[in-house]
Amino acid sequence: MTTAKSAYWQKIVDQAKDKDGNQRPFFSMAPMEAVTDTIFRRVVAQAGGPDVYYTEFTNAASMVHPEAKFSVQGRLAVAPGEQMPIAQIWGSKPEAIAGAAKVLPGLGYEAVDLNMGCPDGTVVKNDAGSDLIRHPDRAAALIAAAKESGLPVSVKTRLGFYKTDEYHDWLEMLFNQDIQVLTIHLRTRKEMSKVDAHFELIDDIVAMRDRLAPDTLLQINGDIKDYEHGLQLAKDHPGVDGIMIGRGVLNNPYAFESEVVDHTLAESISLLELQLDLFDEVNQTANKKNFEALKRYFKIYLRGFSHAAKLRQLLMETHTTAEVRALLEEHVGDLLAVK
Ligand SMILES: Cc1cc2nc3c(=O)[nH]c(=O)nc-3n(C[C@H](O)[C@H](O)[C@H](O)COP(=O)(O)O)c2cc1C
Asked: Which SUPFAM superfamilies does its entry note (predicted)?
């Protein structure tokens, strides 16, 4: 099936060049619920971000429901000047997906991604996320519905629901839907994140794409640590167009940097300070954030030095960004001295 590449994706591909001007795969930060909001995306951008960002997944039904609309606004909030992410939405009803996708251009979004891989029990019970792997007809209807928005449509999914073998039929169906990008998290729903990603299947999936939908971009995901690792995988598996990294960024906020640099603790602390500032900024808008949710980030920035655990423990007892700043102020001299 011939897919006309959208101008949006063509630009991303064209701009993905290494420092010598050679073509390289595009890199993206994976959509992560309660993580990849406007705050964290901007912190990662400061640390040397990817080519493409995704929002947290957002419930299409809520986006079109008059009373629920406000509950999802924070997930789709984008700061002025911030690089526009791709909106990831999830749902099971074509009307909701079509309605939600049509809302997106008005918010400034230029592309939409459909979640067809979420393993979460509640999402699966709602006939969405990875449940769509068991219901390919419904999945196809959702893709068609998203296209009504006129936005370029991509899909993020897993290999199968129960067994890796399911990818033969499931991905064949998806490659026949004329989508812009297929992002494959190289595990089944059943495997959750408990086994290693199936890198051994990449070449076969590339061959399927080449045969069925040569113009659909193929992005791989799962266990990819950083830029260098992604580049190596793309080299080992020619035909891979994109590399998506999720938890790698939670281990190393500099995961997308094209040159490995030994970052100082002072630099890491300044990323945390940026996160605190952006948290305060967002909390002055209607999209209030929960302070407790900020705590999961402390370990990203404060690790790998003596006393890190002790300081993190103290930070876990804070209730405001002011308290966090005060603790950093109190300890930072000692921290920098011991490093
Ligand atoms: C905290 C967390 C939240 C996630 N939320 C989403 C989500 O909203 N949408 C989605 O498609 N995948 C979500 N995922 C899955 C990731 O996008 C990614 O597919 C998975 O973590 C494997 O990639 P990795 O090994 O690079 O992390 C989430 C993963 C984590 C760890």
From this structure: FMN-linked oxidoreductases
